[in-house]
């Protein structure tokens, strides 16, 4: 499917509005049967760029669905990835307001904090 920039912005706006309203939406691939993985990642990048333009920083990357069991459970055949922004960081002992999340769940993750060199 060849998606125009206008269509990509339309879907990016749809997801941005859902995030702002803290409302879940149907997956775009269910709404638009011709949506490709490549297009979905391009739509993701539209919203990431918007956040960067507003002053947020990319603090890391996230790879999900790396286990075959989870892929099978969710009906996908490959891992996915996304960007972690600086406003997503919760330090040890920190607090996360339930108002900031849509479907609160706990998933243990191993992360390495990047330390600035003193040299």
From TrEMBL:
Q: Which SUPFAM superfamilies match?
A: FAH
Specify the superkingdom. Answer: Bacteria
This chain belongs to the protein called 2-keto-4-pentenoate hydratase
Write down the InterPro entries for this protein, in alphabetical order: Fumarylacetoacetase_C_sf, Hydratase-Decarb/MhpD_sf
């Amino acid at each position: 499917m060849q998606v125009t920039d206008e269509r990509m912005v339309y879907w990016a706006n749809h997801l941005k509005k859902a995030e702002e309203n803290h409302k879940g939406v149907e997956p775009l691939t269910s709404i638009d049967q011709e949506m490709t993985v490549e297009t979905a990642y391009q739509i993701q990048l539209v919203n990431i760029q918007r956040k960067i333009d507003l002053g947020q920083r990319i603090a890391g990357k996230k790879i999900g669905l790396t286990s075959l069991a989870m892929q099978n459970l969710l009906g996908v055949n490959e891992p996915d990835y996304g960007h972690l922004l600086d406003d997503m960081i919760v330090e040890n002992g920190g607090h996360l307001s339930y108002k900031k999340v849509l479907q609160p769940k706990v998933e243990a993750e191993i992360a390495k904090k990047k330390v600035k060199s003193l040299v």
